[in-house]
Design brief:
Blueprint lengths: L2 H8 L2 H8 L3 H27 L9 H29 L1 H5 L2 H27 L5 H26 L1
Helix pairs in contact: 2-4, 3-4, 3-7, 4-6, 6-7
Bound molecules: protoporphyrin IX containing FE (HEM).
Length: about 160
């Protein structure tokens, strides 16, 4: 059912230009990786603090406030580089389990971070059982997205 949509994606001008270029895919994927570093770093700083480790001299709310713009920048870079990567090899992604694991987990991770973790961390000061659950769940969801992304290239 979805295959015609993926075929359409692969046939787009952007998909064709990236696919036929010698350097565009690796350059875009390198920026995708830099975006991952910014996103990953901004998530880890807060998740480690929620788990009761990391930068313990700062409160959870303070770290979250400082990390939020970097998290949003990281997400923006990942989405804007992920789409051209995807368009260039959409049919490969259609038949790729790792891609489906990643792309189905991504909205869950985004919603959890923006709606659950952000609301919790905004007012949290000290580590608690709930903060540990929020931090561990956030880490697990984003690990699955990143591992799925990495595995696309291996499978
Ligand atoms: C926002 C969260 C995202 C994360 C954490 C993420 C993570 C990753 C990682 C770790 C890689 C492997 C890079 C490498 O080792 O060279 C990757 C590659 C890739 N990502 Fe993402 N990604 C995200 C968003 C997206 C989106 C939204 C799309 C598509 C719509 C996408 C499509 C791809 C594709 C097609 C590859 C290349 C796979 C290959 O090597 O053939 N990514 N991503």
């Amino acid at each position: 059912m979805l295959l015609p949509f993926f075929e359409w994606c692969e046939a787009t001008t952007l998909g064709r230009v990236v696919r036929e270029s010698l350097w565009m895919f690796p350059v875009i994927e390198a920026i995708h990786l830099v975006g991952l570093c910014v996103l990953g770093g901004s998530l880890l700083v807060v998740d480690f603090r929620l788990l009761g480790t990391g930068l313990k001299d700062s409160t959870i709310a303070d770290l979250d406030r400082q990390a939020r713009p970097w998290m949003l920048l990281g997400v923006a870079v990942m989405l804007s580089t992920g789409v051209p990567l995807f368009l260039s090899e959409a049919i490969k992604c259609y038949y790729n389990t790792a891609f489906w694991v990643k792309i189905l987990t991504l909205p869950v991770a985004l919603l959890f971070t923006l709606l659950v973790k952000e609301r919790f961390a905004r007012t949290a000061t000290e580590t608690s059982t709930s903060s540990r659950w929020v931090g561990a769940t956030d880490l697990l969801l984003w690990f699955v997205v990143a591992a799925g992304g990495r595995w696309i290239g291996f499978s």
